Structure formats: C-alpha cells, structure tokens
Amino acid sequence: MDRSYPVDALVALGARALEAAGVPSADAELTAAALVDADRRGIASHGLLRLPLYVSSVQARGVNARPNPTWVREHGAVAVLDADAALGQVAMAAATERAAQLAGQFGVAVVAVQNSTHYGAGAYWTERLTARGLLGILTSTTGVTVTPFGGVEKVLGTNPLTLAAPSAGPASLTADMATSAGAYGKVVAAQNEGKPIPEGWAVDADGRPTTDPTAALAGALLPFGGPKGSAVAVLLEALAASLTTASYAYQTEDIWANRSARMNTGHLLLAIDTAAFTSREHTERRVADLQEKVRASAAAGETTFAPGDIEHAHAQSHAETVPLAGSTVAQLVELLTSLGLETTPLEP
Ligand SMILES: NC(=O)c1ccc[n+]([C@@H]2O[C@H](COP(=O)([O-])OP(=O)(O)OC[C@H]3O[C@@H](n4cnc5c(N)ncnc54)[C@H](O)[C@@H]3O)[C@@H](O)[C@H]2O)c1
Prior knowledge:
The protein has helices at 7-20, 25-40, 51-59, 88-106, 123-130, 184-193, 213-218, 226-242, 280-295, 309-317, 326-338, and strands spanning 3-6, 70-75, 78-82, 108-116, 134-140, 161-165, 173-177, 202-203, 209-210, 220-221, 265-273, 321-324. It is of the alpha+beta class. It has three domains: 1-59 and 325-348, Orthogonal Bundle (Hypothetical Oxidoreductase Yiak, Chain: A, domain 1); 67-180 and 227-317, 2-Layer Sandwich (Ribosomal Protein S8, Chain: A, domain 1), CATH 3.30.1370.60; 181-222, 2-Layer Sandwich (Wheat Germ Agglutinin (Isolectin 2), domain 1), CATH 3.30.60. It has a seven-stranded mixed sheet, with helices on both faces. A three-stranded antiparallel sheet has the order 9-8-10. Helix 1 packs across helix 2 and helix 4 (88-106) packs parallel to helix 5 (123-130). The protein is globular, with a radius of gyration of 20 Å. Nicotinamide-adenine-dinucleotide (NAD) binds at residues 43, 45-46, 118-123, 140, 142, 158, 160, 162, 174-178, 183, 186, 305, 307-308, 310-311. This is Ldh family oxidoreductase. Belongs to the LDH2/MDH2 oxidoreductase family.
C-alpha cells in the first residue's frame, strides 16, 4: 500500500544515499530533487524507484561519481557536452542552463550531450526552459529495450520525447513520454508489485505478446502507436546519438544487467526563445488558448486534459508529501541499511 512521506525528507535521504556512494553533495542533492519531483508529479517510474540503480551504478563505476564534464564543441547556437559518465541529472543541469543562455543569445539553441547516463523524467528539464519563456524539445537514448515495429530483436531504447511550451495558464503545455508503449520503469514497477502490464506493451523472449513484466523484461518492449510510433522512436534514436559519439541502444550493455557498464547515453535538447518570434506574452497566451480549447472538448460531465495537466495537478497536490509504493519503500530501506544510513524517515 502507498504511504506518503515529506518531500524534504525524501530529497535528503536520496542525497545522503548518493553521497554515501561518493557523489559530491551538490550533485547528490540535484539528482535526489529531480527523482523526488518525478514522484511528486506522479511519475513513480522515474522517481526514487530508480535510486537503488543509481547508487549501485555509482558504486560499480558505471556512473562516474566525480565527473569532469567538458564542452567539446561550441559553434554559435550549438554546443556539445561530454558528460564524462556523470549522473544524467548532473549533465542535464549543465545542458539546460547552456541551452537557455544560447537561446537567449541566438533565439534558438541546440545542445547535444554524449557520454551521459539516465536523466530521469524529461519534463523536469524542459520545465527549466518553460519557466523562462522558452520552448523545449528533449530526447535521449537509453538502454536497449525496444524492438521496432515488426521486429523481435531489441534494437532501440525507450527513447523519451518531451515537447514543452510555456503558458499563460497555470501549467506549461508538456507532452512527456517514453516512445515505448509503456515506460521501462513502469514495467519494473509492475514487476516489483507483482502486477501484470497492459496488453500491447511487450513481447516475451520468443516474440509472443505478454502481460507478464518478468517475461517482458526478458523479451522486448514495443513502441507506442504501431508503425508510426516506431518510426518516431527510430528517429529519436538517430537524433540523440548520431550528432555525437553517443552509443545507440543496441551498442550498449544495459546498466540494469551490468552496473559497471558505461552507457554513453546521448541527449539532444532544443530551446526556442519565444521572444525572438513575437513576444513571450503572445506565445504564452496562444498556448493557454489551446490548452483551454483542449480541456473544453470534453463531453458533459467528463474531463479532458491538455498534455501535462495530470502531472501538474499531481505535483500541486503533493507539494509537501509524496506517496511511495510499498515495494519502493522496501527497496529504499534495504539500500539505506546497506549503506549504513538511518532508515528513520521511511519507518511507519
Ligand atoms: N530518461 C529516460 O531515459 C527516459 C526514458 C523513457 C521515459 N522517460 C520518462 O518517463 C516518463 C513517463 O513516460 P510515459 O510514457 O509513461 O508517460 P505517460 O504515458 O504517463 O504520459 C505521457 C503523456 O501523456 C499525457 N497523458 C497521460 N494521460 C493522459 C490523459 N488521460 N489525458 C491527457 N493526457 C494524458 C501526459 O501528460 C504525458 O504528457 C516521462 O517523464 C519520460 O520523460 C525517461
């Protein structure tokens, strides 16, 4: 059963666990805050559920606790960051800051990242742009988990796509998703909780459709939206990895299987300064108009959400405390105990 815990306590315990593994405190806090924010937004698949993986990957040196990220290319509105196997959150904090600065200067910015790792929920990063009146488009490679439409062999990652626009309304307009039918973390969460996954999410190792999360993880996830979704997923893989020396998913040894694997994850972030086109106020009003039209499309008595509304509402109602699944709490208690840390914040 889910229980709720104070946000501050969860960020602090996440940071302590990462610090115990050797991550400097500022990077540990930044990463823990990003994970807890996903839980606040109701994206448990990218919340503290990931912390044991992050910590064990740092311990096994698949993730570099003390990286030296370097800007390897700088060309006008383009910049390329080699993250030196940093936590993806550390890489993305630098990438979003750079993208915002370049977009302010040039009206648009394209920042690519190579040699990175998992950055968590994409919307956490695009929110940093929309809060400044910028549009953001973000994608990434991941571990190899997805077979393209018509295939059985895993070739692609769950390649997240985040498209975000600032709004004059209460929430940015944010489409943030895995391009697999279900996010990998949701399959892991279903496995942890002993629940089936929806039909159409995966095939087993023999290529047969399955709703068993364990069989799905041994087999392959499927792209969302049939051949069209598969086409998008393939292109995102190319965008996230072909501009840099980042690896394609099929060239990686997945860190879930081997914590010492260097993922060489690639990210691509585009930022567009609305003020370079008309004005920030104009774009934010236009975006709010569209959100309102989408919401108003519901049948009488029903609710229709604009992209990002559900996560925004969840975050608003969980500003102070955040629910965690019992299986996640059990894994966190085990992690903290193994690190010799207090488990008090998680005790009933
Ligand atoms: N870092 C990585 O490697 C990686 C990889 C894959 C996914 N992710 C992240 O996983 C997270 C979850 O992805 P997901 O595919 O499970 O997302 P999801 O299916 O929960 O939501 C996808 C989108 O659909 C919208 N949506 C959902 N339900 C809706 C409804 N009833 N009405 C209107 N809109 C609705 C949401 O606002 C969201 O924009 C994302 O934050 C993504 O960035 C990260």
